[in-house]
Amino acid sequence: ITNIQEIDIETGTWADYNPMTIKWKGQRKRFRWTLNSTILKEKDFIQKMKKELDFFFKENRTEDTSIQNLWDTMKAYSRALVIDYIKITNKKKREALKTLEDDCKRLETELQETPLKKDIKIQMDTVKHKMGLMEKEELAQKIRGAKQNYFEDAYIPGR
User: Fold this and answer.
1) Domains in the chain: how many in total?
2) Where are the coiled-coil regions (predicted)?
């Protein structure tokens, strides 16, 4: 009981009952940054990287700078750009999910007050569907991360 940090009752989006979330206190895992390859398919990200790397090479490409130093600096700069882009997109996704959850709670209370209105039920189903799509995308990303961690932490002879 002393290891429980927070308990919260969520809205019932998947089934007839409301799920509970429990946050446990625990040790932090070591974090190793890896590139999220799904952002390489996003056109906004590609345009931003092209623009930023063009600017980077215009400013830093001089005769005094060695190619190795330029390469290492470009990798660090690119990593910072990727982290910033992912942070912004994750924030937007969290805000969108929060608004969908708020809409679902509001529609749930409206449906309890007037259960015969079919348009409220239809709106609630569409909101739940959107939330489900967002959660599936998040789960797919977590599965990719778990596979990657399993691969990185696997036993390799000679290590």
Assistant:
1) 1
2) 90-117
Q: Which amino acid is at 132?
A: G
Q: List, in sequence order, every residue forming a beta bridge with 7; answer none if it has no partner.
A: 22
Alpha-helix runs per DSSP H in 9-159? 43-60, 67-113, 118-152
Contacts of 81 (CB under 8 A, 6+ apart): 48, 49, 52
Q: How far is CA 20 from the centre of its chain?
A: 21
Residue partners of 4: CB distance under 8 A and separation at least 6: 22, 23, 24, 25
CB 24 within 8 A of CB 6: no
Range of the structural domain that residue 92 is part of: 4-155
